[in-house]
Amino acid sequence: MRFDLPDLRLFLAVLEAGSITAGAGRAHLSLAAASERLRAMEDHAGVALLERLPKGIRPTTAGEALAHHARSILRQSTLLRNELAEHARGTRGRARLMVNTAAMSEALPDALAPWLAAHPRIDVDLLERSSEEIARAVEAGVVELGLLSEAAVTQGLQRQFFAHDTLVALLPRDQAQDDARALRLADLAARPLIGLPADSALQQHLEAQAAALGLRLSYRVRLRTFEAIGAMVAAGAGVAVVPAAALARLGACVRGVALHEPWAQRRLCLCWDGARPLSPTAQALRSHLADWAGRAADR
Known about the structure:
Pfam families: HTH_1 (PF00126), LysR_substrate (PF03466). InterPro entries: HTH-type_LysR_regulators, LysR_HTH_N, LysR_subst-bd, WH-like_DNA-bd_sf, WH_DNA-bd_sf. Residues 3-60 form the HTH lysR-type domain. The protein is an alpha/beta fold. It folds into three domains: 5-85, Winged helix-like DNA-binding domain superfamily/Winged helix DNA-binding domain (Arc Repressor Mutant, subunit A, Orthogonal Bundle); 94-149 and 269-298, D-Maltodextrin-Binding Protein, domain 2 (3-Layer(aba) Sandwich), CATH 3.40.190.10; 164-265, D-Maltodextrin-Binding Protein, domain 2 (3-Layer(aba) Sandwich). The protein has eleven helices and eleven strands. The protein has helices at residues 5-17, 20-26, 31-45, 61-89, 101-118, 131-140, 173-178, 185-189, 201-212, 226-234, 280-298, and strands at residues 50-53, 56-59, 93-99, 122-128, 145-149, 158-172, 193-195, 219-222, 240-243, 254-258, 265-272. Strands 3, 4, 5, 6, 9, 10 and 11 form a seven-stranded mixed beta sheet that branches. It has a two-stranded antiparallel ribbon with strand order 1-2. Strands 7-8 form a two-stranded parallel ribbon. The longest helix has 29 residues, at 61-89.
């Protein structure tokens, strides 16, 4: 049985108009073309769908069943068309975004929250990775967008400044007064350290910098949040390295001291592969994050 959508629309138009002539007019068909389509539908169905009366038509039992399902099919067709249009406009869908630790915990939530609130039919998958992994993933097309340290972006990727990401040493306030000078990673390696889990992108970044200097970092405990790390440092359990942006949330009992290391002065940027067109959803998210960064820079 083969009924296409124009067939179903014609059949319903004939029923609603009460005659083939009037229904053909509503469907923008000639009477001959409409009559031929209706006869073909009945041939395919193997049963009469309409009773031809002296004045008009009425559906048979089979015709009533067809009308019921035709309305459902056309309604679903409209929903499908509207949903696909939302995907095409970038107002419905799912975006995948790879970010480093600082972006995940500090800059991104404030930027992303209003966009998600304004687009309730879009979901975002956030994947935390090191900046080097993010650059490789964007180049390979694994994700369309990345938020990473500017130093990791290769020439094949487009980039746009997003936020500053300065790393500082976190010390108890009384010790920080004695260490007002800038510290180096070697200074911290000699102290008991509090850190993030080993799979954290920031932690992997610190380990890589330490390895390049021939240092081994030893951690007393690893915690999931900067707030928990701050509480440990405030109690005198050790020292840590955190984004400067996190200091405002860590209380008055700790203080950030500058790290005299070039890798501690980072700029976060949004990157994408300019050789591949972004999906409408990813393009909408990229535009929002770029606008947010511009407004934040002006404040």
